[in-house]
From TrEMBL:
Segments crossing the lipid bilayer: 152-173, 235-253, 265-282, 351-374, 416-437, 464-483, 503-521, 533-554, 560-582
Keyword terms, alphabetized: Ion transport, Iron, Iron transport, Lysosome, Membrane, Transmembrane, Transmembrane helix, Transport
Entry keyword Ligase: no
Pfam family, one: Nramp
Membrane topology according to the record: Multi-pass membrane protein
Transport is among the record's keywords: yes
Entry's family note: Belongs to the NRAMP family.
Protein name: Natural resistance-associated macrophage protein 2
Compartment(s) of residence: Late endosome membrane; Lysosome membrane
GO MF terms held by the record: cadmium ion binding; cadmium ion transmembrane transporter activity; cobalt ion transmembrane transporter activity; ferrous iron transmembrane transporter activity; lead ion transmembrane transporter activity; manganese ion transmembrane transporter activity; nickel cation transmembrane transporter activity
A cellular component term, taken from the record's GO annotations: lysosomal membrane
């Protein structure tokens, strides 16, 4: 293939020197030469500055100037040689630079023990363990816990198989996110910054930020409710919100004591959730045969609209959009020589094994919650619960209406009914589990926000400034509801926030499938035809399921003005999703969709070698 390298056109503020572009000959013919067989030089000009740019075109037998200095003397098809646009700008170990162009506050890199190659090594697995468990926190946040308990109360054990399938789909999507980070040395937001044009990039950033803020609100709500339950109502909900703001600042600085200590702290919080919700499981003693049947028999006999909506809600709660961005960034914390394909393959393998273990643990914890409420409260009426709460002298008996309607629970009422039926210990242990879920997911949500802002905008904000901004946006509406309304309205916000998460899901799934299918981005590690087809089907199914969830929610608005607003937003939303989908289909190889756009937004005759938005001199100067 033809390779063009841009000579120095201005150094960045950090003085990082040259950046290289790897493009197909047919593509570069629009900017440089086409069909190059030998070396040569050509001249081009920056369209905005008039700056002359000297461009060197290498023949098939020539090497990049930095190849010999990179320390990669192995396979000539290494990532450092072929995928120079990514490897040379992101591999400090290959170029001798001291930092990556997009640095984060994960300054520490975990070294991988050097051993002779073997099929499996526990030492290496331990070295790679960490990012997957931080990623799995999103599968255990308060929104997921509420979805779990509602699933058990509404449908019993019948939807456990939906939870299992959603977790497996989530694992496959997380695999793509981790591979993107390992292979390119860039996380998803950074790749979006390089590949999408400015306007779509900004819109995409806003959508992802909205998803992160919505998730943040759910986590704050969960923590505030847990604090209220633990204090027996002495700390009001708004007080719990303020406490959550304060302790987030404290916990976020744990990484200053070492990345492994931070990962250990998250492991501790996951252990707390496993023990607390496991205690509830042992206390309630659900039928094991019913648990296994619900998990492995995909049926839902007698299910009506509420159960179907709950099944859709499970998928929306489990697969979180910001988690793709987070996981692709977290894997950068390990020292992997991306110019060595064997090391990249090994990293992909161990990260996938770790993700399997982490999501298995999260799945078991979710099963605990579903099973507890399926066994104890499925089919219960409010009147039955009120009688039990009165007999147990619970101060919360007035929380439920005295009628024969089916019991409706949330994370607050769930703790109350556990206390009524199984004693105060069940209530407080439940609250501890919810607090651990809220605190851990609040921290990972802030990390996600930092990565997304840094990646999309190439903007370096301190953690303090980042937390102040996102916490203000997330806290203000939550605090207002907590002050002026009751717990019913606060937990009711979770329904709206779950819809918000569902709406944002395509803005993570489509880009991750797009870029992991592009050879200029992933080289030999790009998705094969099987993964492209399977990934496309998964993205389509998950997005369709979540859109159904949104439509059901909109139908319940009940006001003509709200319908009009929803219609206008829907047109803009679907238009942007269509644009991203079009780009994804191009990346998947559907060349007939190429419109030959001037700015490389269409296809080329070689879609597998196509860059959506080839980096040019102007973008290099701006960086």
């Amino acid at each position: 293939m033809g390779i063009c390298s841009c000579s120095p056109i201005g150094q960045s503020q950090e003085g990082r020197g040259l950046a290289f572009l790897a493009v197909a000959p047919g593509i570069w013919s629009r900017r440089c030469w086409g069909g190059v067989s030998g070396g040569g030089r050509t001249e081009s000009y920056s369209k905005n500055t008039g700056t002359q740019v000297s461009t060197m075109v290498l023949g098939p037998e020539q090497t990049m100037p930095d190849d010999s200095a990179s320390g990669d003397h192995g396979d000539s098809a290494s990532l450092g040689a072929i995928n120079a646009a990514y490897s040379n700008s992101s591999l400090p170990q290959s170029t001798g630079q001291s930092e990556e162009p997009f640095t984060t506050y994960f300054d520490e890199k975990i070294a991988i023990p050097e051993e002779e190659y073997s099929c499996f090594s526990f030492r290496k697995l331990w070295a790679f363990t960490g990012p997957g468990f931080l990623m799995s926190i999103a599968y255990l946040d308060p929104g997921n816990i509420e979805s779990d308990l509602q699933s058990g109360a509404v449908a019993g054990f019948k939807l456990l198989w939906v939870l299992l399938l959603a977790t497996i789909v989530g694992l496959l999507l997380q695999r793509l996110a981790a591979r993107l980070g390992v292979v390119t040395g860039l996380h998803l937001a950074e790749v979006c910054h390089r590949q999408y044009p400015k306007v779509p990039r900004i819109i995409l950033w806003l959508m992802v930020e909205l998803a992160i803020i919505g998730s943040d609100m759910q986590e704050v709500i969960g923590s505030a409710i847990a604090i209220n339950l633990l204090s027996v109502g002495r700390v009001p909900l708004w007080g719990g919100v303020l406490i959550t703001i304060a302790d987030t600042f404290v916990f976020l600085f744990l990484d200053k004591y070492g990345l492994r200590k931070l990962e250990a702290f998250f492991g501790f919080l996951i252990t707390v959730m496993a023990l607390t919700f496991g205690y509830e499981y042992i206390t309630v003693k659900p039928s094991q045969s019913q648990v296994l049947k619900g998990m492995f028999v995909p049926s839902c006999s007698g299910c009506k609209t509420p159960q179907i909506e709950q099944a859709v809600g499970i998928v929306g709660a489990v697969i979180m959009p910001h988690n793709m961005y987070l996981h692709s960034a977290l894997v950068k914390s390990r020292q992997v020589n991306r110019a060595n394909k064997q090391e990249v393959r090994e990293a992909n393998k161990y990260f996938f094994i770790e993700s399997c273990i982490a999501l298995f643990v999260s799945f078991i914890i979710n099963v605990f919650v579903v099973s507890v409420f399926a066994e104890a409260f499925f089919g219960k009426t409010n009147e039955q619960v009120v009688d039990v709460c009165k007999n147990s002298s619970s101060p919360h008996a007035g929380l439920f209406p005295e009628d024969n309607s089916t019991l409706a629970v949330d994370i607050y009422k769930g703790g109350v009914v556990l206390g009524c039926y199984f004693g105060p210990a069940a209530l407080y242990i439940w609250a501890v589990g919810i607090l651990a879920a809220g605190q851990s997911s609040t921290m990972t949500g802030t990390y996600s926000g930092q990565f997304v802002m840094e990646g999309f905008l190439n903007l370096k904000w301190s953690r303090f400034a980042r937390v102040i901004l996102t916490r203000s946006i997330a806290i203000i509406p939550t605090l207002l509801v907590a002050v002026f309304q009751d717990v019913e309205h606060l937990t009711g916000m979770n329904d709206f926030l779950n819809v918000l998460q569902s709406l944002q899901l395509p803005f993570a799934l489509i880009p991750i499938l797009t870029f992991t299918s592009l050879r200029p981005v992933m080289n030999d590690f790009s998705n094969g035809i099987g993964w492209r087809i399977a990934g496309g089907i998964l993205v389509l199914i998950v997005s369709s399921i979540n859109m159904y969830f949104v439509v059901v929610y909109v139908q319940e608005l009940g006001h003509i003005v709200l319908y009009v607003v929803a219609a206008v937003i829907s047109v803009a939303y679907l238009g942007f999703v269509f644009y991203l989908g079009w780009q994804c289909l191009i990346a998947l190889g559907m060349s007939f969709l190429d419109c030959g756009h001037t700015y490389h937004l269409g296809l080329t005759a070689q879609p597998e070698l196509y860059l959506l938005n080839t980096v040019d001199a102007d973008s290099l100067i701006s960086r």
